[in-house]
Sequence to fold (146 residues):
Amino acid sequence: MNSKQIEETLRDYSWMLNEIKRQRQLMDYEGGILVAQSGIESTMPKAKGGTSDPIALEVIRRDKNSKWLDKLETKVLFIQKRIHLITDEREKAVLECMLDGLSMSAISQHMGLSRRHIYNIKESIVNRIAHFAHSAQDMTKNKQCV
Fold:
C-alpha cells in the first residue's frame, strides 16, 4: 500500500469494519445459503444476454460480494497488523480516534489541538506505516533473491 491508500484505509476503517461484520452476519444466515448449479445443467449453453434465473443472479451477486469483502478484510488487516508501530502517545490517541471513525475536526476538539496539528500527526502515522510496509516488502524481496 502506498501513503494515499493507507490514509484512505485509516479514514474508512470504521465503516469497513462495520461492513465486514454485516456481511459476515448475512453469510451466516442459514436460510440464505444458495447452491450453484451443478451436474449436466452447468455445462449446457446459456441464453445470450444474461440470465433471468433469480437464484443464479443471486449466486453471482454473492460471489462478487465475497470478493469485495476479501478486499475490505485485507485492508483492515493491513492496518491492524501495523498498529503496534505507533508508539508516541499523541499518535496513538489520534490513531484510535481515526479507527473509531472520528473526523479530523472531532479529533481536534477531543484532544484540544488545532486541526493542522492533528493533520500533521496523521501524516506522521501514515508515513510510519508506509515506511514499515515498504521496508517489509524490501526484506521479503531480498529473502526471495537469496
